[in-house]
Amino acid sequence: MENLRNKNILLAGATGGIGRETAKLLVASGAKVFLTGKNKEKLNALVNELKLDEYSSYAADLTDISQLEILKNKYLAFSGSLDILINVSGIGIIKPFEKLTEEDFLNTIRINLYAPFLLMKSFLPLMREAGKGLIIHVPGVLGKVPMAGAVAYSAAKYGLRGMLQSLREELKRTEIRITQVYLGGVDTPFWDTIDLRVQRDKMIRPEEAARSIWFLCQQPSSGVVSEMVLQPFNHQAI
Predict the structure, then answer these.
(1) Cα separation of 60 and 69, whole Å?
(2) Cα–Cα–Cα angle for 3, 9, 28, nearest 5°?
(3) Residue 210, phi then psi, degrees to nearest 5
(4) What tens digit of pLDDT does each residue of 30-40 get?
(5) Boundaries of domain holding 13
(6) What pLDDT digit, counting tens, does each position of 174-184 carry?
(7) Mean pLDDT of 83-102
(8) Structural domain tally of the chain?
């Protein structure tokens, strides 16, 4: 397994339930972590909790090209290279099709598909220059198996899965690896605004989901874990 000490890592979605726990594990492993998330207050609180310096984070809306440009410049001031890019950002809109608005659909596509595209456009060149790197995205199980009420969400996650698989074909002659993580239900604030009867006490805990991502960051450079599936034992969709 690869040692994470002094690895340069960009973690997008750091203010979410999984992102926070992932950040803690990476910092504890000695990695040089740069954090980004949309909520500036939550991001600053996390930076203070982890005792990182002021140059280790930047709050940005990943759907805004101008903010991504600033994010990239902030990251380059932090480090000139990028070993691992992790994206756990996203939004969840789960509702019946007849209640799904055009705004719901487009917002889900923007945040769950367009933003990852822009993130890759901004930071993949750093890995191309080095000829190596590891990219980890989290499509979730609804990027493999659809669910009633997840028209917008699955559309975005299936799109993310396809985009990454296509990009993998373009990167075959490099040592840039892509791993997709298919997480089932994780007990995070994701569910706070979703009107479904779910058993959150039987879901995966955020720290367990984060540990799987932390583990994948250490995969041996001689191979690649193309995908990992982690889902609640009582609700296995795949």
Answers:
(1) 10
(2) 55
(3) -65, -40
(4) 999 999 999 99
(5) 8-230
(6) 999 999 999 87
(7) 93
(8) 1
What is the three-state SS of the chain?
CCCCCCCEEEEECCCCHHHHHHHHHHHHCCCEEEEEECCHHHHHHHHHHCCCCCCCEEECCCCCHHHHHHHHHHHHHHCCCCCEEEECCCCCCCCCHHHCCHHHHHHHHHHHHHHHHHHHHHHHHHHHHHCEEEEEECCCHHHCCCCCCCHHHHHHHHHHHHHHHHHHHHCCCCEEEEEEEEECCECCHHHCCCCCCCCHHHCECHHHHHHHHHHHCCCCCCCCCCEEEECCCCCCCC
> Cα separation of 112 and 8, whole Å?
24
Specify which residues 107 forms β-bridges with: none
CATH, residue 77: 3.40.50.720
Q: Angle 131-132-135 (CA atoms, 0-180°, nearest 5)?
A: 130
Which residue pairs from 100-103 have beta carbons closer than 8 angstroms and sit at least 24 positions apart in sequence? 100/151, 100/152
The two tokens of residue 112 are 């769950």
- Residue 78 in any domain: the answer is yes
Residue 3 lies in a domain: no
Give domain status of residue 237, yes or no: no
Give the C-alpha separation, 238 to 236, whole Å: 6
Angle (nearest 5°) at CA 57 between 54 and 63: 150
pTM, two decimal places = 0.92
Digit-coded pLDDT (tens) for 133-192? 999 999 988 888 888 888 999 999 999 999 999 999 999 889 999 999 998 776 656 655
Cα–Cα distance for residue pair 169/147, rounded to 1 Å: 28
| Residue 99 is assigned to a structural domain of this protein | yes
